[in-house]
Each structure stands twice: as C-alpha cells, then as structure tokens.
C-alpha cells in the first residue's frame, strides 16, 4: 500500500447520522449495538484519481490492491500472509447441458486459513494495532476465529476467542496451532457473542466480532471487487451467498455498491442469501416483512455449523443487500447441503465446508424453480471442507455413484462421524 490516507465517514444504517472515524468505535453511539455503520468514501475524488486501468497496473498484494476503499490510515500493520486473490472458476455446464445458467465458482477455501473470513481478520488486526490495541477478541462459529488466530499469529498479537463448544474440532485444532487463547462457551454462537462483548468492555480489548464491529464488512467486500475484476467488470446476474450472521452477504453488497459509486460497474447483481432450514432467521424476516424485533429467535440446529445462528448480528446489512439488489433469500435443507457439497467436490474438485456448500444448494434450488432462464451466476464458496470433514464421512454424503467408486471404508467413516 503506497497510496494516501483514505477519507471516509461512518454512517448509521438506522438513524442516518454520520461520524468521523475518531468519533466512534465500532457502531453508532446513538443507536448502540443496533446501529451498524457504513464506511462511505470520497467517491468523487476517487473517481477522478483512480480507474480500472490504473488498478490493472497495480501489483499490490491480494486484497490490499483495493486499499483506497479500505478504512486504514496506516500500512504498518498489514499482516504478511497473502489474503485475497482467490481463483474464480468458470464452470458453465455445472448444472448440466440443459441448463441456461452459466456458473462461476469463487473459491475462498484458498485463503491462508481456509475461509473468506481472512479478508475481515486481516483488516481487523491492522485496524486494531493501528488503534493501539494489544489484545483482540472475537466470538465465532469457527471460521472468523481461525482467521483471527492466523492473522494474529503472523503479527504476534494476543488474541482471545469465544467459541461454541460444539465447534468442529478441525477449526479448534487450527486455533490451538496458531496459539490463540480459547474460551469454549456452553451454548451456541449467540452465547459466545454476549460473553465476548462483555469481556471486551471489561478489559478494553479490540472486538473483531461481526455485527459489533462495522469495519468487518470493509474487509470482506473485497471479494466483490475481485469478482468484478476477474469477470472483466461484467457483472453477473446472480451471486449466491451463504448466510449465518449475515455479514458476508452485507459485505458483498457493499463491495458492489462502492464500485457502482465509482462508475466501474453499471449495476448491482441480484444477491441471493442462502440459509439452512434449521437456521433461517433472515429468510423468515424477509418473507414475513415483519420488523426484525418481532421475528422469533429459534435455536439453530443445522449441521452446517458455520451458518448456525439464532439471531444474525449483521441482519440490517444482510436484509439491505437482498432488498436493494432485488434479490431474495432461499432456504435449503441439511440433506440438500450435504448432497451439494459432495456434488461440488466430486464434479469440480472444489472442496466446500457445509456452510459454503449451501450456496450451491441454493443455486440448485433456484435453477429448479426458474427453468429456462439464461443467466450468469456466481457461487461463493466461503470455506474449505477440511475445516469440518464430518459431512463427507457420513452415510448421507455417499450417493450411489460415489459409493461405488469413491466409498469411504466403513471403519474409517465410523471413526470420524
Ligand atoms: Zn444510529
């Protein structure tokens, strides 16, 4: 990063108040934790000084090539790990020759710790250290924590992680390997969220948790920038995004929004938020049109642990993403997620975790309900299947054709399921 400091203001999604960065921490002081903030940049100046052509000649590393649209004033603490620059695979016939939906796969399993959350955690550690923080904490279903632990390890930053005790052991192993301090919470993500919030307020730690920390969208949105650049600025018709906490969906929208302000793209694609049937707050809120305070919080029980959330903390940004892009929420069953994960792995070589595979399950459902429509669709594979291998070793993952040629020895399957 060698550009001048970014000018930006923070605007509340609830009350529209604007703040200078030094006036707020992570959320609107007036609306408290309900008040998610947008970082809004000096788009007219950026438009004059920057262009798609100049970007093409910028060889800064990974996500930092878009640093002019990131809320950092210092380059000093950018982690040394390469974050971003993940592949986009064109698989036009993924849905079969009869389908008129051409598919692209954005493979975020290739990030340093294996998930898209590295984009947020890279920004978080740089932002925390720039703010003078010595400890950074997060509540997570697993991926955000692994990402934070990895990024912190690369910079020697102390990190404390609040995690449901049911989190996949692969993710736990990753955090332990990185040397994180781990607090296993007796409950789901929602309990971990509250405990982390309390601890950060008590100890003055930097809180990386999405939904509290409005800056996290600004890291994750870089996936939308990359997508557009990889597609030569031809925006797809549809982007399928897994939804647990809602942060990735909101961030993808923000990325397209920024590019639209610069005039680099002509429209925002329809964003399709995909939820698991047993963790579907956003789907119910969107379908019913009820104020979100009135939508029932149901304990989540999906096997897709990374999107298992009773109350999505980035719900405002997630809902805006779908409504402003004229997209929709789709709900998929656990068996369809398992089937989609196996199909994606076996037919493309991209190995998704269950939460990530929900994006593909959502596309399959959409294609079934919208036959004959010619469209381009991107599925966002947000995390690696190596982070939770249980679904690939279960009986339900073995379709008849796979069982014949790729069956897992029964003893091995029993051992790991
Ligand atoms: Zn506000």
UniProtKB/TrEMBL annotation:
Keyword rRNA-binding recorded: no
InterPro entries, A to Z: Ser/Thr_Dehydratase, Thr_synthase-like, TrpB-like_PALP, TrpB-like_PALP_sf
EC number: 4.2.3.1
GO molecular function: L-serine ammonia-lyase activity; threonine deaminase activity; threonine synthase activity
N6-(pyridoxal phosphate)lysine carried by residues: 117
Any Pfam family: PALP
Protein name listed in UniProt: Threonine synthase
Species annotation: Pseudomonas palleroniana
Gene giving rise to this polypeptide: thrC
